[in-house]
Fold:
Amino acid sequence: MRFKYVINEVMVGLWRNVTMTIAMIITMAVSLTLLGASLLLYKQVDRMKDAYSQNAEVSLFFRVGDTEETKHATPEQKAAIENALASDPLVSQYWFEDKTEAYRKFSILFASTPDLVELTKSEDLPESYRVKLKDPSTVPQFEAKYEQYVNDQGGLELILDQKKLLEKVFSVLGSLQKLALIISIVQAVAALMLVINTIQIAAYSKRREVAVMKLVGASNWFIQAPFVLEAVSAGLIGAVIAYGTLVLAKIYIFDSALAPLTSVLTEVPWTNVNLMLPVLGAGAALISSITGWIALRFYIKV
Structure:
């Protein structure tokens, strides 16, 4: 009977302050969506770091120009570099990437800018050797060894360590992580203030009923439960909306719009997305209940 009364009071309270309830749910949903997105970003960056660290390459780019100063590498120069790679104890594996393959990768990477792909020809892109080292920490020794080929006689234009580029990319992603987390915290504070305000208004509107209940011996828990559950219900609804937003982002952004970039961006696994539902739900319920209980202390004295 008591449980039925509490649930009924929760439903009445949510409907009585429907405008405030909707505002609370929307604010909570926005803050939880940003929080979930920042958590997914953290996990995704870690996945990308692991994936790229294992597959980081050193690229040896050949000259691509037609002038005397930047003439194409000769077959003899290419053969000399390949022989050096074949006998190099630092090298785990290597492969040659011609202009056709380079253009194919370029067109995938810049699929979102078709004008750039249209203006670029395969002849404009350099051939290269892609090298995977046995130990990524030996990159400085490898670069020093092949620096002799970066000249007119060697035929190389550039030795590029992917790991250095990735460190710059991940530093930018790290900044985005922090920004998303800061925004979600600001939104969470706004949501909590709205929760406190809503509960205080609800408690004030029922102050006479609360006074009567205390006079007849009702426990503080019994009096506070409907108000706290109102906040928890709004938080859980907000968590479900936030989870649904993340699911839609996974389907329509990562799996559709960004599908051509799967060779660059690692896939966002469904396990990480689905994990956000219990995480956000538990977080919203816990924070809402604690906030609601603290807010009620001003109205219902123990």
